[in-house]
Amino acid sequence: MSRNKFPPKPKYDPDTGPVYLYGLHTVRAALDNPGRVKKTLLATPNALGRLKESGEIGKVKVVETNPKELDRLLGGEAVHQGAALEVDPVSRFGLDDISNLKLVVVLDQLTDPHNVGAILRTACAFGADAVITTARHSPRETGVMAKAASGALDLVPMIEVRNLGDTLEKLKQRGLLVLGFDSESEVQLKPRTDDRPLAVVMGAEGKGLRQRTRELCDEMVRLDMPGPIKSLNVSNAAAIALFAATAGRKS
Questions:
Q1: Is the Cβ–Cβ distance between 113 and 145 less than 8 Å?
Q2: CA–CA distances in Å: residue 102 to residues 58, 159, 216
Q3: Nearest Cα to Cα of residue 241 among 199, 195, 194, 207
Q4: What is the Cα–Cα distance from 42 to 86, expressed in whole angstroms?
């Protein structure tokens, strides 16, 4: 029996392979980020024209392609809009790299890239100064995360920390109120009218905040949900939490 001397090319694995950002909005944000290392832009003629209309392409290598090739590279579920950009992962910051923190979002071991991306987008919309993640039990940057973030990966600094407990202590030393969210808390979140800097801490779905994280929060609160469902997807909960926590503030 004859054997195929040319086995099929292994399917691209977004969790281990190169980082491809896709979608016109996401690619545009990455192209506009001077701190982002851009390698190759794969684009259809139409998508390339739209990208050039919205800004400079820069010196990145451009390879003309077609939708089928992008589907083959990224997977059929990727909504790429005819454009994909191979990049190095965005630079992660340290807590000391950002001097003025007024609003930060802290994620306690969230691993789903869709949720982390969606929270990044929400954090950007509410003017957060940074999103803090743990070095372990947090997702690698992927096109899925970047697409969900809709450009926020290149707009909001991500701070990666090894010890979340030490980080919460440092945030409190810098004058931030650390506000933890738990659907079982007896205290209902109310809009805050003071201008004290705020750290909003969200836990992973199912597990919630770890015990040590809870102990270090200044307050534990829950969202008011009078309906029969008492819990939300963490990205939806983060959006409501940020609105409720900041709606009454002056700045």
A1: yes
A2: 33, 15, 19
A3: 199
A4: 8
Burial of residue 172 (number of CB atoms within 10 Å: 0-12, 13-18, 19+): middle
Q: Which residues contact 245 (CB under 8 A, 6 or more apart)?
A: 179, 189, 191, 192, 198, 200
The secondary structure of the chain as a DSSP string is ----SSPPPPPP-TTTS-EEEESHHHHHHHHH-TTS-EEEEEE-HHHHHHHHHHS--TT-EEEE--HHHHHHHH-TT---TTEEEEEPPPPPBPGGG-S--SEEEEEES---HHHHHHHHHHHHHTT-SEEEEESSSSPPP-HHHHHHHTTGGGTS-EEEES-HHHHHHHHHHTT-EEEEE-TT-SSBP----S---EEEEEEBTTTBS-HHHHHH-SEEEB----SS-----HHHHHHHHHHHHHTT---
Nearest to 116 by CA among 199, 189, 198, 202: 202
pLDDT value for 1: 43
Six-digit token string for 211: 């015990």
Phi/psi class of residue 49: alpha, beta or left (left: φ > 0; alpha: ψ in -120 to 50)? alpha
pLDDT at 91: 78
Quote the CA–CA distance of 93 and 130 in Å, as a whole number: 9
Which residues of the chain, if any, have pLDDT below 70? 1-17, 230, 248-251
pLDDT at position 7: 41
How much is the pLDDT for 70? 95
